[in-house]
Amino acid sequence: MAMSMDTLPERVQEWASLLAEGPCLWREGRFVAGRLPSPAGQLVLLAERLDKAALARSLPILAAEQVEVELSAVKRIAERDLLCLSLSAWSPALKARLQAVADDWDLACVPALPTAGEPGLVLMDMDSTAIQIECIDEIARLAGVGDEVAAITRAAMEGALPFSESLRRRVKALAGADAAIIDQVIGRMPLMPGLTTLVTGLQELGWKVAIASGGFTPFVCHLQQQLGLDAAFANTLEIRDGRLTGEVLGAIVDAEAKANILVNLAHEHNIPIGQTVAIGDGANDLLMLAQAGLGVALHAKPLVQEQAPVCINRLSLEGVLGLVQAH
Q1: Cα(first)–Cα(last) distance of the chain, in Å?
Q2: On the CB side of 228, how many CA atoms lie within 13 Å of its CA?
Q3: Active site members
Q4: Residue 238 Cα distances to 26, 110, 151, 153, angstroms
Q5: Phi-psi region for residue 323, left (φ > 0), alpha (ψ -120 to 50) or beta?
Q6: What CA–CA distance (Å, rounded) separates 190 from 172?
Q7: pLDDT number for residue 1
Q8: What are residue 246's DSSP bridge partners?
Q9: Is residue 277 exposed (0-12), middle (13-18) or buried (19+ Cβ within 10 Å)?
């Protein structure tokens, strides 16, 4: 059995016959039966509809780097197409070159992927990751200081301002606001597309799912109850006589705290770090993404796009479920 790119169906999802007898190697312009003896990297191409152009654009880059390629699986997970390849070599430069040609698909090019059939943990940020808004910006808007607080939020997420400093400045601007605003924001808190699909899918696999947020406890507790999450961590706003005081109680959940939460939860549940996934969008998520076995930036800020192990820009959270189940 040997098949060239020209003879393959346009849509990757129709390549089942190619893999009917097992994995295939890309050799001299065609796929032939075979397996890499010891892969050093994994490449997953993802899209709502994945066409062979994604692979055709990727193969010359792999060939130029003298990377051998094994086509190991074609899957459809959470209504999204995935093409899974094992690689004989991996490097950050290779990942960057593949990312540069990804026109209408997402990809993960990493040394290793988690295994869905073994215990695992997903820890995600909340604002602009699990939900579509920044809760503090919404509180500020209702309190009449929206522009001031939103500007500080942008600076923090882009890495231009230390997170703890930015949080204290933003909360200080809320001093005197009616605490009932919090319930108003909870009442119209839009979930990120794919969130319920991701959480339900992970729970069916027996994985742990948690949130670590630089936001505030009422919002993460609402999500924890709504989705049945295993844990939720956030900051505590001080409230006196029904009004915000402008102070945060206790230690702030910043970048270092998020990374530590990941390690501590993994240890608590006896889960290897290689079986952990972190998801975030801002600069204060980078340590957590780097600490995890698989770090995924979701529709992230430019600084995070540059540094994150994996970037999802076209799909949403359902794409993470695909990566967990890719191989």
Answers
A1: 23
A2: 12
A3: 125, 127
A4: 60, 42, 23, 20
A5: alpha
A6: 25
A7: 57
A8: none
A9: buried
The DSSP string of 212-262 is: EEEEEHHHHHHHHHHHT-SEEEEEEEEEETTEEEEEEESS---HHHHHHHH
Q: Count CB neighbours of 137 within 10 A.
A: 22
Tell whether the torsion through CA atoms of 89, 92, 96 and 97 is positive or negative: negative
Rounded CA separation 194/179 (Å)? 30
pTM over 0.85: yes
Cα 164 to Cα 37, 247, 254, 280, 305, distances in angstroms: 47, 12, 6, 17, 22
Q: Which residues contact 321 (CB under 8 A, 6 or more apart)?
A: 77, 78, 194, 197, 198, 201, 202
Give Cα 75 distance to the centre of its chain: 19
Separation between Cα atoms, residue 25 and residue 34, nearest integer Å: 5
Q: What are the structure tokens assigned to 258, written together?
A: 């998020």
How far is the C-alpha of 22 from the C-alpha of 143, rounded, in Å?
60
CA distance 158 to 284: 9
**Residue pair 169/151 in contact by the 8 Å Cβ criterion:** no
Q: What is the per-residue pLDDT across 274-316, written as a single tens digit (0 to 9) for each?
A: 999 999 999 999 999 999 999 999 999 888 999 999 999 999 9
Cα separations in angstroms, 90 against 36, 94, 294, 306, 319: 14, 7, 15, 17, 22
- Class of domain 2-110 (CATH, top level): alpha beta
Paired tokens of 263: 């390690």
Residues 84-96 have pLDDT tens digits of 999 999 999 999 9
Token duo for residue 252: 């702030």
- Buried b or exposed e, range 16-45, using 16+ CB within 10 angstroms: eebeeeebbbbeeebbeeeebeebebbbbb
Closest among 110, 113, 114, 112 to 95, alpha carbons compared:
110
Please report, for the chain, the start and end positions of each structural domain, with discontinuous segments joined by +: 2-110, 121-324
Q: Domain spanning 121-324: which superfamily?
A: HAD superfamily/HAD-like (3.40.50.1000)
Q: Where are the alpha helices (H) located in the chain, listed in sequence order?
A: 53-64, 92-100, 135-143, 146-157, 163-172, 180-187, 195-205, 217-227, 255-268, 286-291, 302-307, 318-324
